[in-house]
């Protein structure tokens, strides 16, 4: 049994080694390079194991990775820190100006995409003879429709887009995962036959209000308390500890109360990022707090994207489900196109949504570790292997292909837009 320290040492050493090799030779964006190198290392181990079965390299690493509960690591560990770091760097005043766009894309876009992906995935699964019911197809739609905030924020670091559009994308990614997780929870209960009142219209509305609304209120309350505590002192070690306590305490309390932990830490991060630097932190404290959360963001992103690449070693795919997985990629892309276009066409009067940005927003719909974590958390069923393979295929395609070509798409689709329109 490998210890937690040994496991952390292995992952950090691999992250540092692959990061160095990527920077020295491949020169891909850091997180994408780590995912690609993790994936290539996984495939290389499989080939070595086939050529030299007596070496047991594949089995040894697989045994180690089997001890990593990917869902727990992402949803109950890394996610809180990564979302807080992303929210702290977001300009709250610009986000308020884009509130209608962000709310529309987060809520209406996620609902439209879930329905379209679920229906198309079920139709193709039925044609291929795959044991995926309509209910489980909708579960896949719910877990794959929200853009992943961690992946989107990591990808945007390498892309030059207008600031207002970037705020819109960051806001959508930070908030739509809360909507997606509520939908996922309801649809899993329905598909597993244990929904009860939770799957009624009133039950869904109550769950959404409790999880999403409760999470936002909790984040504002805890964020304000932390802000007042930081304002009362000028001691950077204590203030750094306050931000760490805010993240862990808020996320843990949200889980105990049944509220959305991701939305709670996003709300807390937005409040701290907006008010603390202006009213509560000295220049010295700002330097240390900013350096800490930049470091946390970079290190956890590196480990997470490496894990996504290595996870192929322990995921149980079925050959029969690979065709359906390949079909899932264009299904999700088309659904993203419709989900982005519909709010633009329906709410042109709002003045914030621009039809010219649709191609870029479609291609920027990157999925990541949250989708994989949700897919792994699905109860065992005949449909799970097909959903898992499809999820992994979409995640790999969006991060590697869409993420690495997003700068080119931005140059081609945004360069002709007037500045007021691009925003």
Automatic annotation (TrEMBL):
Domain Cation/H+ exchanger transmembrane: 15-411
Keywords: Antiport, Cell membrane, Ion transport, Membrane, Sodium, Sodium transport, Transmembrane, Transmembrane helix, Transport
Topology with respect to the bilayer: Multi-pass membrane protein
Residues spanning the membrane: 6-22, 34-52, 72-92, 99-122, 134-154, 174-192, 204-227, 288-310, 322-346, 390-410
Subcellular location: Cell membrane
Superkingdom of origin organism: Bacteria
InterPro entries, alphabetized: Cation/H_exchanger_CPA1, Cation/H_exchanger_TM
Family, as annotated: Belongs to the monovalent cation:proton antiporter 1 (CPA1) transporter (TC 2.A.36) family.
Name this polypeptide is given: Cation:proton antiporter
Species this chain originates from: Methylobacterium komagatae
């Amino acid at each position: 049994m490998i210890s937690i320290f040994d496991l952390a040492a292995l992952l950090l050493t691999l992250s540092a080694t692959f990061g160095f090799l990527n920077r020295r030779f491949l020169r891909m964006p850091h997180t994408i390079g780590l995912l690609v190198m993790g994936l290539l290392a996984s495939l290389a181990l499989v080939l070595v194991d086939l050529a030299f079965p007596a070496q047991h390299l594949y089995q040894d690493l697989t045994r180690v990775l089997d001890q990593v509960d990917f869902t727990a690591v992402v949803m109950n560990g890394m996610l809180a820190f990564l979302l807080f770091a992303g929210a702290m760097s977001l300009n709250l005043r610009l986000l308020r100006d884009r509130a209608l766009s962000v709310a529309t894309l987060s809520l209406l876009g996620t609902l439209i995409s879930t329905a379209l992906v679920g229906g198309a995935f079920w139709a193709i699964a039925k044609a291929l003879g795959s044991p995926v019911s309509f209910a489980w197809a909708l579960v896949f739609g719910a877990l794959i429709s929200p853009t992943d905030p961690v992946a989107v924020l990591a990808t945007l670091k390498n892309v030059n887009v207008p600031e207002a559009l970037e705020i819109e994308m960051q806001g959508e990614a930070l908030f739509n995962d809360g909507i997606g997780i509520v939908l996922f929870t309801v649809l899993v209960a329905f598909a597993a036959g244990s929904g009860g009142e939770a799957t009624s219209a009133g039950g869904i509305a109550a769950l959404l209000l409790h999880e999403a609304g409760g999470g936002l209120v909790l984040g504002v309350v805890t964020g304000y308390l932390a802000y007042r505590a930081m304002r009362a002192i000028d001691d950077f070690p204590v203030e750094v500890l306050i931000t760490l306590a805010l993240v862990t305490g808020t996320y843990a309390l949200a889980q105990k109360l049944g509220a959305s932990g991701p939305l709670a830490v996003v709300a807390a991060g937005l409040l701290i990022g907006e008010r603390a630097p202006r009213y509560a932190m000295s220049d010295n404290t700002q330097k240390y707090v900013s350096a800490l959360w930049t470091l946390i963001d970079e290190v956890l992103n590196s480990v997470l994207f490496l894990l996504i690449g290595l996870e192929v070693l322990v995921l149980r795919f079925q050959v029969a489900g690979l065709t359906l997985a390949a079909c899932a990629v264009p299904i999700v892309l088309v659904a993203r196109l419709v989900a982005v276009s519909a709010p633009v066409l329906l709410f042109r009067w709002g003045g914030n949504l621009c039809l010219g940005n649709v191609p870029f927003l479609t291609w920027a719909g990157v999925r990541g570790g949250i989708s994989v974590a949700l897919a792994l958390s699905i109860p065992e069923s005949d449909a799970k292997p097909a959903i898992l393979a499809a999820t992994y295929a979409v995640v790999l395609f969006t991060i590697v292909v869409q993420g690495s070509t997003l700068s080119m798409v931005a140059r081609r689709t945004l360069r002709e837009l007037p500045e007021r329109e691009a925003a």
